Amino acid sequence: MTKAARLAGMFSPEMFRLHGHSLIDLLADRLSAQLQGQGAVLPWRDPVTEDTRWQRPLPQQPTLDAEHWLQQLQQDILPGGLAIHHVRNMGHQVAAPLPMAALCDLVASLSNQAMAVYEAGPTATMLERQVIRWLSTLVGWDSPRLNGLLTSGGNQANLTALLAARQRALPGNSWQQGVPSQGRLCILASEHSHYSISRAAGIMGLGTAAVVTVACDAEGRMQPAALQQAHAACVAQGQQVMAVVASAACTPTGSIDPLGAIGLYCRAHQLWLHVDGAHGASGLLSARHRMALDGIALADSVVWDGHKLLYMPATVSAVLFRDPANRHAAFAQEASYLFQGDTMDDFNTSTSTLECTKRMMGLKLWTAFSLYGVEGLGALVDQVYGLAQQLAHKLAADPAFELLMAPQTNIVCFRHRGEDSDRHAMNAHQAVLRQRLVQSGAFHITQVTLDGQIWLRTALMNPFTSAEDLDALLAALQQPLQ
């Protein structure tokens, strides 16, 4: 084969069409099977053994043709992963993505709009701007100016928001000169806040100790009185509160902090309020559940993950600012080969984000809102929140289980009572139950430790999970340990 023929084959539209059709057929068949509950949720394999099995010399010449590549996908690669659309996949807060949104990622991959500057992705830029306006409207902010951006994940989104908060706390040029050692900054956050908050503090040079935890009530919600006490303690110690971080909803329990009360306190004391709504902000789509987020519009910044309850493929997150001026506050970068310092910079996404090259993430969100509307997407939220309520009722009615709290979103924490009430024995019992269940392939659930106690945890993300699936989960957990 000549060099020209080889290059032509690598970019062949005909081969792309042929194998693309075969790939879609393969994925559609797997999607159908998983939605019907067929096959294992997770075909557990020992990772050390798997790592050895997958090790191969670096290919200097082709080792597969396209047909054999498809066979490997069908026989080994896809079956070896977590069946994300399986109705008994109840583990992590990862969406069972909308198939049409997945097709948008294919479009984004092949068109490969870099988006560092407007000219590298004109339509991609416009799609992102439209999506940001829609999300901001749902939060309760209507502004003629753009007040947010999309990032590759909630960690980046939280970091971006807190960098903007730092800029307001230190109005000098902290970007160039760093953070002064005097007047140490701190962040007040729920004791159940996501680890990305302390990670952001570490990245910003504040140190993870700068995150001061605020106590929560028995329902996992930040206590406004405890926030007031923590704020007063920081001031008494000569610390400056850079931001207050509220959760909607927190990862361990899905609890939603009282955003209205926290927001009013922050307004009264001129504190930046950041709401980590990575998971729970999608409740704004639901006429039935959006009231739990009352007060979110008082925030200075909000993070909202699309790859959770907006049912997008990973990853796409929005960071939104109440004041549009804060969109450019996080970064102060000069790069003449990209930015010319003129009005075009408002359309150059990399002036406002950690990323330079960025995927066309807005397409899938724009498509979902356009195809299904707020009503359709809100119905997904209603369905999985309803599943959580069903599971909670079943647990409360079964003396073999203990429910941690009534679910506020689609996350339910509980434990099997077992035969031994000793704390250490109870904890070990939950861990063994989960391990057995996950490695059996029948279900996927997680666990969380709260106040020294291990609880089993489900995140009910799949709207096709049924009451029968919930009953089967409880029955499986009551099977005698071998």
Distance between the termini: 60 Å
Oligomer: single chain
Helix-strand category: alpha/beta
Principal-axis shape:
globular
Share of β-strand residues: 5-15%
- Roughly how much helix do the residues carry, as a percent range? 40-55%
Number of strands: 11
Strand order, sheet with most strands: 1-7-6-5-4-2-3
Low-confidence stretches: 333-339
**H/E element string?**
HHHHHHEHHEHEHEHEEEHEEHEEH
- Integer average pLDDT: 93
Helical segment tally?
A: 14
Radius of gyration, rounded? Answer: 24 Å
Largest sheet: 7 strands, mixed
Written account of the structure:
Helices cover 41% and strands 12% of the residues. The protein has 482 residues and is of the alpha/beta class. Helix 11 (259-268) links the parallel strand 4 (240-247) and strand 5. It has 14 helices and eleven strands. A seven-stranded mixed sheet has the order 1-7-6-5-4-2-3, with helices on both faces. It has a four-stranded antiparallel sheet with strand order 8-9-11-10.
Key features?
single chain; 482 residues; alpha/beta; seven-stranded mixed β-sheet; four-stranded antiparallel β-sheet; 12% strand; globular
